[in-house]
Amino acid sequence: MTTSQLVFDPFSEEFFNGPWEIYRRMRDEAPVYYNSEHDFYALSRHEDVAAAYKDFATYSSAYGLDLATVRSEEPFAAKMIILMDPPEHRQMRSLVNKVFTPRAIEAMRPMVTDTIDRYLAKVDRTRFDVVQDFSAFFPVEVITQMLGVPEEYRQQVREWVDTSLHREPGQIDMSEKGMQAIGEAMALYYKLIQERRANPCDDMFSRLVAAEIEREDGGMESLDDFEIAGFATLLGGAGAETVTKLVGTAAVTFARFPEQWQRLLDDRSLIPAAVEELLRYEPPVHYNVRRSMREVDLHGVTIPEGKPVFLLQASAHRDPEAFSDPDAFDIDRNRTEAQNLGFGYGVHSCLGAALARMETAIALERLLDCLPRYEVLWDDCRRVAMQNVAGWSHVPVRVPD
Amino acid sequence: MTKKIEVDFGLCESNGVCMGIIPEVFDLDDQDYLHVLQEDVTPENEKQILEAVRQCPRQAISIREE
Question: At the fourth CATH level, which superfamily is domain A13-378?
Protein backbone atom coordinates (compact mmCIF):
# COMPACT_ATOMS: atom_id res chain seq x y z
CA MET A 1 0.00 0.00 0.00
CA THR A 2 1.43 3.35 -0.94
CA THR A 3 0.82 6.44 1.13
CA SER A 4 -0.52 9.35 -0.86
CA GLN A 5 1.54 12.51 -0.75
CA LEU A 6 0.44 14.80 2.05
CA VAL A 7 -0.83 18.07 0.67
CA PHE A 8 -2.48 20.79 2.72
CA ASP A 9 -4.08 23.27 0.42
CA PRO A 10 -6.21 25.84 2.25
CA PHE A 11 -7.79 26.89 -1.06
CA SER A 12 -9.06 23.46 -2.02
CA GLU A 13 -12.39 21.70 -1.89
CA GLU A 14 -10.86 19.39 0.71
CA PHE A 15 -10.25 22.32 3.00
CA PHE A 16 -13.65 23.89 2.43
CA ASN A 17 -15.31 20.55 3.21
CA GLY A 18 -13.41 19.82 6.43
CA PRO A 19 -9.77 18.62 6.25
CA TRP A 20 -9.73 16.58 9.48
CA GLU A 21 -7.89 13.62 7.96
CA ILE A 22 -5.29 15.93 6.43
CA TYR A 23 -4.81 17.59 9.82
CA ARG A 24 -4.30 14.20 11.44
CA ARG A 25 -1.64 13.29 8.91
CA MET A 26 0.07 16.62 9.37
CA ARG A 27 0.26 16.14 13.15
CA ASP A 28 1.56 12.60 12.72
CA GLU A 29 3.82 12.91 9.68
CA ALA A 30 4.73 16.57 9.28
CA PRO A 31 4.17 18.64 12.43
CA VAL A 32 6.12 21.39 10.72
CA TYR A 33 4.52 21.05 7.32
CA TYR A 34 5.94 22.68 4.21
CA ASN A 35 3.92 23.37 1.10
CA SER A 36 6.44 23.71 -1.72
CA GLU A 37 3.93 24.88 -4.30
CA HIS A 38 3.08 28.02 -2.34
CA ASP A 39 6.16 28.20 -0.09
CA PHE A 40 4.46 28.23 3.29
CA TYR A 41 4.79 26.33 6.57
CA ALA A 42 2.07 25.10 8.91
CA LEU A 43 1.98 24.03 12.56
CA SER A 44 -0.71 21.54 13.48
CA ARG A 45 0.02 20.18 16.98
CA HIS A 46 -1.60 21.85 19.96
CA GLU A 47 1.62 22.46 21.88
CA ASP A 48 3.24 24.15 18.88
CA VAL A 49 0.21 26.17 17.82
CA ALA A 50 -0.40 27.48 21.36
CA ALA A 51 3.27 28.39 21.78
CA ALA A 52 3.33 30.16 18.42
CA TYR A 53 0.29 32.26 19.25
CA LYS A 54 1.99 33.36 22.46
CA ASP A 55 5.25 34.18 20.68
CA PHE A 56 4.33 37.32 18.77
CA ALA A 57 7.98 38.32 18.47
CA THR A 58 8.77 35.26 16.38
CA TYR A 59 5.43 35.03 14.61
CA SER A 60 4.43 38.49 13.47
CA SER A 61 0.99 39.72 12.50
CA ALA A 62 2.34 42.84 10.80
CA TYR A 63 2.77 41.35 7.34
CA GLY A 64 -0.79 40.24 6.76
CA LEU A 65 -3.31 37.73 7.96
CA ASP A 66 -3.63 35.34 5.07
CA LEU A 67 -1.33 33.66 2.58
CA ALA A 68 -1.90 36.30 -0.08
CA THR A 69 -0.82 39.18 2.13
CA VAL A 70 1.90 37.51 4.23
CA ARG A 71 3.74 36.21 1.18
CA SER A 72 4.00 39.69 -0.29
CA GLU A 73 6.98 40.41 2.02
CA GLU A 74 5.95 43.98 2.70
CA PRO A 75 4.38 44.94 6.01
CA PHE A 76 0.70 45.41 5.43
CA ALA A 77 -0.50 48.98 5.16
CA ALA A 78 -3.90 48.80 6.82
CA LYS A 79 -4.22 50.12 10.33
CA MET A 80 -6.12 47.29 11.93
CA ILE A 81 -5.13 45.80 15.27
CA ILE A 82 -5.22 42.31 13.78
CA LEU A 83 -2.30 43.45 11.62
CA MET A 84 -0.18 45.05 14.30
CA ASP A 85 2.51 43.75 16.60
CA PRO A 86 3.22 45.07 20.06
CA PRO A 87 3.98 47.77 21.10
CA GLU A 88 1.73 49.57 18.62
CA HIS A 89 -0.92 46.88 19.04
CA ARG A 90 -1.36 47.41 22.78
CA GLN A 91 -2.44 51.02 22.62
CA MET A 92 -4.80 50.65 19.70
CA ARG A 93 -6.53 47.64 21.19
CA SER A 94 -6.90 49.49 24.51
CA LEU A 95 -9.10 52.05 22.75
CA VAL A 96 -11.92 49.55 22.34
CA ASN A 97 -11.34 46.69 24.74
CA LYS A 98 -13.43 48.05 27.61
CA VAL A 99 -16.50 47.72 25.40
CA PHE A 100 -15.95 43.99 25.00
CA THR A 101 -15.26 42.70 28.51
CA PRO A 102 -17.61 39.93 29.71
CA ARG A 103 -19.23 42.40 32.10
CA ALA A 104 -19.79 45.05 29.44
CA ILE A 105 -21.13 42.45 27.00
CA GLU A 106 -23.47 41.00 29.61
CA ALA A 107 -25.10 44.42 29.85
CA MET A 108 -25.97 44.03 26.17
CA ARG A 109 -27.91 40.83 26.70
CA PRO A 110 -31.33 42.47 26.21
CA MET A 111 -30.29 44.06 22.90
CA VAL A 112 -28.72 40.84 21.63
CA THR A 113 -31.69 38.71 22.72
CA ASP A 114 -34.08 41.13 21.09
CA THR A 115 -32.12 41.06 17.84
CA ILE A 116 -32.01 37.26 17.78
CA ASP A 117 -35.73 37.01 18.56
CA ARG A 118 -36.59 39.52 15.84
CA TYR A 119 -34.97 37.34 13.18
CA LEU A 120 -36.30 34.09 14.58
CA ALA A 121 -39.82 35.51 14.50
CA LYS A 122 -39.62 35.70 10.70
CA VAL A 123 -38.83 32.03 10.06
CA ASP A 124 -41.21 29.18 9.38
CA ARG A 125 -40.39 27.13 12.46
CA THR A 126 -41.45 23.88 10.91
CA ARG A 127 -38.91 24.24 8.14
CA PHE A 128 -36.13 26.82 7.73
CA ASP A 129 -32.44 27.27 7.03
CA VAL A 130 -30.50 27.78 10.27
CA VAL A 131 -27.87 29.85 8.47
CA GLN A 132 -29.67 31.53 5.55
CA ASP A 133 -32.79 32.38 7.55
CA PHE A 134 -31.32 32.91 11.00
CA SER A 135 -27.63 32.95 11.91
CA ALA A 136 -26.55 34.94 8.85
CA PHE A 137 -28.45 37.96 10.13
CA PHE A 138 -28.16 38.60 13.83
CA PRO A 139 -24.36 38.67 14.37
CA VAL A 140 -23.74 41.42 11.85
CA GLU A 141 -26.83 43.25 13.05
CA VAL A 142 -25.44 43.30 16.60
CA ILE A 143 -21.90 44.40 15.78
CA THR A 144 -22.89 47.04 13.24
CA GLN A 145 -25.40 48.44 15.71
CA MET A 146 -22.61 48.67 18.28
CA LEU A 147 -20.43 50.41 15.72
CA GLY A 148 -23.15 52.91 14.81
CA VAL A 149 -24.05 51.78 11.29
CA PRO A 150 -27.61 52.87 10.45
CA GLU A 151 -30.10 50.05 10.20
CA GLU A 152 -30.51 50.28 6.44
CA TYR A 153 -26.84 49.42 5.83
CA ARG A 154 -26.28 46.65 8.36
CA GLN A 155 -27.07 43.60 6.27
CA GLN A 156 -25.15 45.17 3.39
CA VAL A 157 -22.05 44.94 5.58
CA ARG A 158 -22.53 41.19 5.76
CA GLU A 159 -22.71 40.92 1.99
CA TRP A 160 -19.52 42.96 1.64
CA VAL A 161 -17.73 40.74 4.19
CA ASP A 162 -18.88 37.52 2.52
CA THR A 163 -17.77 38.78 -0.90
CA SER A 164 -14.34 39.79 0.41
CA LEU A 165 -13.78 36.41 2.07
CA HIS A 166 -15.03 34.23 -0.75
CA ARG A 167 -12.47 32.11 -2.61
CA GLU A 168 -12.96 29.75 -5.48
CA PRO A 169 -10.89 26.53 -5.26
CA GLY A 170 -7.35 27.52 -6.15
CA GLN A 171 -7.91 31.21 -5.63
CA ILE A 172 -5.46 32.64 -3.09
CA ASP A 173 -5.75 36.37 -3.68
CA MET A 174 -8.86 38.40 -3.06
CA SER A 175 -10.98 38.83 -6.16
CA GLU A 176 -11.76 42.11 -7.89
CA LYS A 177 -15.26 41.83 -6.50
CA GLY A 178 -13.81 41.31 -3.05
CA MET A 179 -11.67 44.42 -3.29
CA GLN A 180 -14.63 46.37 -4.60
CA ALA A 181 -16.71 45.18 -1.65
CA ILE A 182 -14.03 46.37 0.77
CA GLY A 183 -13.89 49.69 -1.05
CA GLU A 184 -17.64 50.14 -0.76
CA ALA A 185 -17.60 49.29 2.94
CA MET A 186 -14.76 51.74 3.58
CA ALA A 187 -16.69 54.46 1.72
CA LEU A 188 -19.68 53.91 3.98
CA TYR A 189 -17.48 53.99 7.08
CA TYR A 190 -15.77 57.21 5.98
CA LYS A 191 -19.16 58.82 5.50
CA LEU A 192 -20.32 57.73 8.94
CA ILE A 193 -17.07 58.91 10.55
CA GLN A 194 -17.56 62.42 9.15
CA GLU A 195 -21.12 62.43 10.46
CA ARG A 196 -19.89 61.41 13.93
CA ARG A 197 -17.15 64.03 13.90
CA ALA A 198 -19.88 66.60 13.40
CA ASN A 199 -22.47 64.97 15.67
CA PRO A 200 -21.11 62.38 18.12
CA CYS A 201 -23.50 59.94 19.73
CA ASP A 202 -23.32 56.83 21.88
CA ASP A 203 -21.70 54.38 19.48
CA MET A 204 -18.26 53.00 18.74
CA PHE A 205 -17.60 55.35 15.82
CA SER A 206 -18.08 58.28 18.19
CA ARG A 207 -15.89 56.64 20.80
CA LEU A 208 -13.12 56.19 18.24
CA VAL A 209 -13.51 59.76 16.97
CA ALA A 210 -12.98 61.00 20.55
CA ALA A 211 -10.06 58.67 21.30
CA GLU A 212 -6.43 59.73 21.45
CA ILE A 213 -3.27 57.72 21.20
CA GLU A 214 0.38 58.47 21.80
CA ARG A 215 2.24 58.75 18.50
CA GLU A 216 5.89 57.96 17.89
CA ASP A 217 6.97 61.51 18.69
CA GLY A 218 5.31 61.26 22.10
CA GLY A 219 2.41 63.57 21.25
CA MET A 220 -1.22 62.63 21.85
CA GLU A 221 -3.30 62.62 18.71
CA SER A 222 -6.68 61.44 17.61
CA LEU A 223 -7.16 58.64 15.14
CA ASP A 224 -7.42 59.46 11.46
CA ASP A 225 -10.26 58.29 9.21
CA PHE A 226 -8.22 55.40 7.86
CA GLU A 227 -7.57 54.10 11.37
CA ILE A 228 -11.19 54.38 12.47
CA ALA A 229 -12.44 52.77 9.26
CA GLY A 230 -9.90 50.02 9.88
CA PHE A 231 -11.51 49.26 13.24
CA ALA A 232 -14.95 49.21 11.66
CA THR A 233 -13.80 46.88 8.88
CA LEU A 234 -12.19 44.51 11.36
CA LEU A 235 -15.00 44.47 13.91
CA GLY A 236 -17.70 44.29 11.25
CA GLY A 237 -15.94 41.45 9.47
CA ALA A 238 -15.00 39.47 12.56
CA GLY A 239 -18.40 40.01 14.13
CA ALA A 240 -20.35 39.13 11.02
CA GLU A 241 -19.14 35.82 9.77
CA THR A 242 -17.84 33.82 12.69
CA VAL A 243 -20.90 33.38 14.90
CA THR A 244 -22.91 32.75 11.74
CA LYS A 245 -20.74 29.72 11.10
CA LEU A 246 -20.70 28.49 14.68
CA VAL A 247 -24.51 28.37 14.88
CA GLY A 248 -24.70 26.55 11.55
CA THR A 249 -22.10 24.08 12.78
CA ALA A 250 -24.15 23.62 15.94
CA ALA A 251 -27.26 22.60 14.01
CA VAL A 252 -25.27 20.08 11.98
CA THR A 253 -23.22 18.71 14.88
CA PHE A 254 -26.15 18.22 17.21
CA ALA A 255 -28.01 16.43 14.41
CA ARG A 256 -25.04 14.08 14.12
CA PHE A 257 -24.91 13.59 17.89
CA PRO A 258 -28.55 13.73 19.01
CA GLU A 259 -27.76 12.38 22.47
CA GLN A 260 -25.76 15.58 23.03
CA TRP A 261 -28.79 17.67 21.98
CA GLN A 262 -30.81 15.67 24.49
CA ARG A 263 -28.25 16.54 27.19
CA LEU A 264 -28.94 20.21 26.51
CA LEU A 265 -32.70 19.71 26.44
CA ASP A 266 -32.40 18.06 29.84
CA ASP A 267 -30.03 20.63 31.31
CA ARG A 268 -29.71 24.09 29.79
CA SER A 269 -27.02 25.06 32.27
CA LEU A 270 -24.73 23.08 29.93
CA ILE A 271 -25.21 25.59 27.11
CA PRO A 272 -21.96 27.49 27.82
CA ALA A 273 -20.08 24.19 27.89
CA ALA A 274 -21.73 23.26 24.59
CA VAL A 275 -20.53 26.53 23.04
CA GLU A 276 -16.97 25.76 24.13
CA GLU A 277 -17.15 22.20 22.78
CA LEU A 278 -18.51 23.44 19.43
CA LEU A 279 -15.62 25.89 19.30
CA ARG A 280 -13.19 23.09 19.97
CA TYR A 281 -14.76 20.55 17.66
CA GLU A 282 -15.23 22.77 14.61
CA PRO A 283 -13.99 26.28 15.14
CA PRO A 284 -15.20 28.74 12.51
CA VAL A 285 -11.66 30.07 12.23
CA HIS A 286 -9.44 27.15 11.29
CA TYR A 287 -6.17 29.06 11.17
CA ASN A 288 -4.38 32.36 11.21
CA VAL A 289 -1.27 33.10 9.21
CA ARG A 290 1.79 34.71 10.72
CA ARG A 291 5.20 35.65 9.32
CA SER A 292 8.34 34.10 10.79
CA MET A 293 10.62 36.89 12.02
CA ARG A 294 13.62 34.63 12.59
CA GLU A 295 14.74 31.12 11.78
CA VAL A 296 12.85 28.54 13.85
CA ASP A 297 14.01 24.98 14.51
CA LEU A 298 11.15 22.68 15.40
CA HIS A 299 10.72 18.91 15.09
CA GLY A 300 13.83 18.65 12.98
CA VAL A 301 12.68 21.24 10.45
CA THR A 302 14.06 24.74 10.03
CA ILE A 303 11.54 27.42 9.16
CA PRO A 304 13.50 30.22 7.48
CA GLU A 305 12.94 33.83 8.40
CA GLY A 306 10.30 35.64 6.37
CA LYS A 307 7.93 32.79 5.58
CA PRO A 308 4.16 32.50 5.99
CA VAL A 309 3.36 30.13 8.85
CA PHE A 310 -0.16 28.79 9.26
CA LEU A 311 -1.19 28.24 12.87
CA LEU A 312 -3.86 25.54 12.63
CA GLN A 313 -6.00 25.72 15.76
CA ALA A 314 -8.66 23.48 14.18
CA SER A 315 -6.01 20.78 14.00
CA ALA A 316 -4.67 21.57 17.48
CA HIS A 317 -8.13 20.91 18.85
CA ARG A 318 -8.04 17.33 17.53
CA ASP A 319 -4.59 16.60 18.88
CA PRO A 320 -4.75 13.51 21.12
CA GLU A 321 -1.75 14.87 23.06
CA ALA A 322 -4.00 17.74 24.13
CA PHE A 323 -7.52 16.33 24.40
CA SER A 324 -8.68 12.85 25.34
CA ASP A 325 -10.68 11.21 22.57
CA PRO A 326 -10.43 14.43 20.56
CA ASP A 327 -12.69 13.40 17.70
CA ALA A 328 -15.61 12.81 20.06
CA PHE A 329 -18.10 15.63 20.35
CA ASP A 330 -18.78 15.68 24.09
CA ILE A 331 -20.18 18.72 25.85
CA ASP A 332 -19.35 17.15 29.23
CA ARG A 333 -15.64 16.71 28.53
CA ASN A 334 -12.99 18.17 30.81
CA ARG A 335 -12.40 21.54 29.19
CA THR A 336 -9.25 22.29 31.16
CA GLU A 337 -7.22 19.46 29.59
CA ALA A 338 -5.78 21.93 27.10
CA GLN A 339 -6.36 25.49 26.05
CA ASN A 340 -9.28 26.07 23.69
CA LEU A 341 -7.68 28.04 20.85
CA GLY A 342 -10.96 28.79 19.07
CA PHE A 343 -10.57 32.45 19.99
CA GLY A 344 -6.83 32.41 19.50
CA TYR A 345 -4.42 32.98 22.38
CA GLY A 346 -2.27 35.81 23.63
CA VAL A 347 -2.23 39.44 22.55
CA HIS A 348 -4.47 38.90 19.52
CA SER A 349 -7.02 36.65 21.25
CA CYS A 350 -10.46 37.48 20.00
CA LEU A 351 -11.69 40.82 21.31
CA GLY A 352 -15.27 39.76 20.67
CA ALA A 353 -15.08 36.42 22.47
CA ALA A 354 -17.56 37.31 25.22
CA LEU A 355 -20.00 38.69 22.64
CA ALA A 356 -19.62 35.62 20.42
CA ARG A 357 -20.19 33.32 23.38
CA MET A 358 -23.29 35.20 24.46
CA GLU A 359 -24.79 35.36 20.96
CA THR A 360 -24.20 31.66 20.38
CA ALA A 361 -25.59 30.69 23.78
CA ILE A 362 -28.78 32.71 23.23
CA ALA A 363 -29.15 31.28 19.72
CA LEU A 364 -28.80 27.75 21.11
CA GLU A 365 -31.45 28.51 23.73
CA ARG A 366 -33.86 29.58 21.01
CA LEU A 367 -33.05 26.57 18.85
CA LEU A 368 -33.69 24.28 21.82
CA ASP A 369 -37.06 25.99 22.18
CA CYS A 370 -38.16 25.63 18.58
CA LEU A 371 -36.23 22.53 17.46
CA PRO A 372 -36.30 20.03 20.33
CA ARG A 373 -36.58 17.39 17.60
CA TYR A 374 -35.30 18.24 14.15
CA GLU A 375 -33.86 16.78 10.99
CA VAL A 376 -31.21 18.28 8.78
CA LEU A 377 -31.89 18.11 5.05
CA TRP A 378 -28.41 16.83 4.30
CA ASP A 379 -28.68 16.91 0.51
CA ASP A 380 -29.30 20.65 0.58
CA CYS A 381 -26.53 21.56 3.02
CA ARG A 382 -23.72 23.59 1.50
CA ARG A 383 -20.27 24.61 2.70
CA VAL A 384 -18.76 28.06 2.37
CA ALA A 385 -15.64 28.51 0.28
CA MET A 386 -13.80 31.23 2.12
CA GLN A 387 -10.40 32.37 3.27
CA ASN A 388 -9.50 31.07 6.77
CA VAL A 389 -13.04 30.49 8.01
CA ALA A 390 -14.92 27.27 7.37
CA GLY A 391 -18.50 26.22 7.89
CA TRP A 392 -21.89 25.91 6.31
CA SER A 393 -23.66 28.46 4.20
CA HIS A 394 -26.87 26.42 4.09
CA VAL A 395 -28.28 24.16 6.80
CA PRO A 396 -31.94 23.53 6.04
CA VAL A 397 -33.79 21.80 8.85
CA ARG A 398 -37.30 20.59 9.39
CA VAL A 399 -39.34 19.51 12.34
CA PRO A 400 -40.54 15.94 11.87
CA ASP A 401 -44.32 15.45 11.82
CA MET B 1 14.00 32.87 46.35
CA THR B 2 10.35 33.75 46.31
CA LYS B 3 7.90 33.63 43.45
CA LYS B 4 5.53 36.53 42.89
CA ILE B 5 2.48 36.89 40.69
CA GLU B 6 2.76 39.62 38.09
CA VAL B 7 -0.12 40.96 36.03
CA ASP B 8 0.36 43.07 32.90
CA PHE B 9 -2.60 45.42 33.30
CA GLY B 10 -2.17 46.66 29.74
CA LEU B 11 -2.99 43.15 28.57
CA CYS B 12 -5.68 42.30 31.13
CA GLU B 13 -9.14 42.57 29.60
CA SER B 14 -11.15 41.50 32.61
CA ASN B 15 -12.09 38.08 31.32
CA GLY B 16 -12.03 36.77 34.87
CA VAL B 17 -10.78 33.27 34.07
CA CYS B 18 -8.15 33.72 36.78
CA MET B 19 -10.80 34.62 39.34
CA GLY B 20 -12.76 31.54 38.36
CA ILE B 21 -9.72 29.38 39.09
CA ILE B 22 -8.51 30.93 42.36
CA PRO B 23 -10.73 33.71 43.75
CA GLU B 24 -8.58 34.02 46.90
CA VAL B 25 -5.86 35.49 44.73
CA PHE B 26 -7.61 37.15 41.78
CA ASP B 27 -10.61 39.42 42.26
CA LEU B 28 -12.32 41.22 39.40
CA ASP B 29 -14.41 44.04 40.80
CA ASP B 30 -17.60 45.73 39.55
CA GLN B 31 -15.56 48.24 37.55
CA ASP B 32 -13.73 45.45 35.69
CA TYR B 33 -10.49 46.10 37.61
CA LEU B 34 -8.43 43.12 38.61
CA HIS B 35 -7.02 43.04 42.13
CA VAL B 36 -4.26 40.63 43.02
CA LEU B 37 -5.29 39.96 46.61
CA GLN B 38 -2.05 38.33 47.50
CA GLU B 39 0.96 38.12 45.26
CA ASP B 40 2.95 35.19 46.69
CA VAL B 41 3.07 31.87 44.91
CA THR B 42 2.96 29.21 47.63
CA PRO B 43 3.16 25.41 47.50
CA GLU B 44 -0.58 25.39 48.26
CA ASN B 45 -1.65 27.75 45.47
CA GLU B 46 1.06 27.12 42.88
CA LYS B 47 -0.89 24.60 40.82
CA GLN B 48 -3.89 26.89 40.54
CA ILE B 49 -1.74 29.94 39.83
CA LEU B 50 -0.04 28.06 37.00
CA GLU B 51 -3.49 27.16 35.67
CA ALA B 52 -4.46 30.82 35.76
CA VAL B 53 -1.26 31.70 33.92
CA ARG B 54 -2.00 29.12 31.25
CA GLN B 55 -5.72 29.83 30.86
CA CYS B 56 -5.64 33.62 30.71
CA PRO B 57 -6.67 34.24 27.11
CA ARG B 58 -4.47 37.32 26.90
CA GLN B 59 -1.51 35.74 28.70
CA ALA B 60 -1.49 38.70 31.06
CA ILE B 61 -0.29 36.79 34.14
CA SER B 62 3.26 35.70 34.77
CA ILE B 63 5.39 34.56 37.67
CA ARG B 64 8.38 36.61 38.72
CA GLU B 65 11.17 34.99 40.65
CA GLU B 66 12.94 37.20 43.14
Answer: Cytochrome P450 (1.10.630.10)
